[in-house]
């Protein structure tokens, strides 16, 4: 399997979910991820190493997105969930309600892999497109509520692209929302220097990074962003579980941690 460095990151996140889901006490139930890792001919463990800590952190992040999507589906059972940069995410199989519409937008090589491994069902559509070109928005059914997710995507974009993505979504989906995650600045700097290595795997450069105390700044991307909300991880196992509540409130970790943010869009963008 030949994949570019950024598309290969979807295998990394898939593998972390599968490692967590294989545990007897998982934070994330994800049998589809376990099944996929068993089916794909790829040296996951050799390439990425296996770290329970890493898998747990990944599961905590994923659970934040699942919670937001499940909350949206509870409010808008027939709404549309748009997953930008979805890679091999198996969220549909974790939180689908049997009635919603799902649209995946990812780069052509990732979509072709997803089509082979996770063929779309009747309420799922896969679109091979660059998420930063807002043309995909024309494909979205806006009649019954829209939630856009960008899980593990924005860090690979340039800062002006992230702002344009936020303002483009805010303009096109009044009353909708966008959930995105960010790595902290120190982490982004390590990737730009090429010094973020685990078990011989080098993470690709992450040009966009944001500290957790900068979330409110995202509002400046568009006057149509009406609210910004931090989605905090909950639960956790062992030492992580014990320290998480403190890490979320005590500096420096509280501000220099990865974050998940919800941006809500005004019903009618204020253009005054
Ligand atoms: C770290 S993976 C995340 C995959 C999935 N969301 C998850 O959390 O497991 C990054 C994904 O973003 C996709 N991606 C990167 N740049 C993109 C772009 N400009 N437009 C659409 N997808 C992009 C990659 O192909 C890859 O599938």
UniProtKB/TrEMBL annotation:
Top-rank taxon: Bacteria
GO terms under biological process: methylation
Pfam family, one: LCM
InterPro entries xref list: Ppm1/Ppm2/Tcmp, SAM-dependent_MTases_sf, TcmP-like
Keywords: Methyltransferase, Transferase
GO molecular function, one term: methyltransferase activity
Name of protein: Class I SAM-dependent methyltransferase
């Amino acid at each position: 399997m030949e994949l570019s460095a950024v598309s290969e990151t979807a295998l990394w996140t898939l593998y972390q979910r599968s490692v967590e889901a294989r545990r007897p006490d998982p934070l994330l139930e994800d049998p589809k991820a376990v099944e996929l890792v068993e089916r794909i001919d790829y040296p996951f463990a050799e390439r990425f190493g296996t770290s329970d800590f890493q898998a747990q952190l990944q599961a905590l992040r994923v659970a934040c997105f699942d919670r937001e999507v499940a909350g949206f589906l509870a409010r808008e059972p027939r709404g549309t969930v748009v997953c930008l940069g979805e890679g091999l995410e198996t969220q549909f199989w974790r939180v689908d309600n049997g009635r919603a519409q799902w649209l995946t937008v990812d780069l052509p090589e990732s979509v072709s892999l997803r089509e082979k491994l996770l063929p779309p069902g009747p309420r799922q559509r896969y679109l091979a497109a660059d998420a930063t070109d807002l043309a995909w928005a024309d494909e979205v059914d806006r009649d019954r509520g829209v939630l856009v997710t960008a899980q593990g995507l924005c860090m690979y974009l340039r800062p002006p692209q992230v702002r344009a993505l936020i303002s483009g979504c805010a303009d096109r989906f009044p009353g909708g929302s966008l959930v995105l995650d960010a790595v902290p600045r120190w982490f982004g700097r390590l990737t730009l220097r090429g010094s973020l290595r685990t078990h011989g795997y080098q993470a690709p450069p992450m040009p966009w990074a944001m500290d957790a105390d900068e979330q409110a700044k995202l509002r400046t991307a568009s006057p149509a962003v009406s609210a910004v909300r931090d989605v905090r991880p909950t639960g956790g196992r062992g030492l992580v579980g014990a320290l998480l509540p403190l890490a979320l409130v005590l500096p420096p970790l509280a501000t220099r941690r990865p974050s998940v943010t919800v941006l809500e869009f005004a019903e009618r963008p204020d253009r005054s």
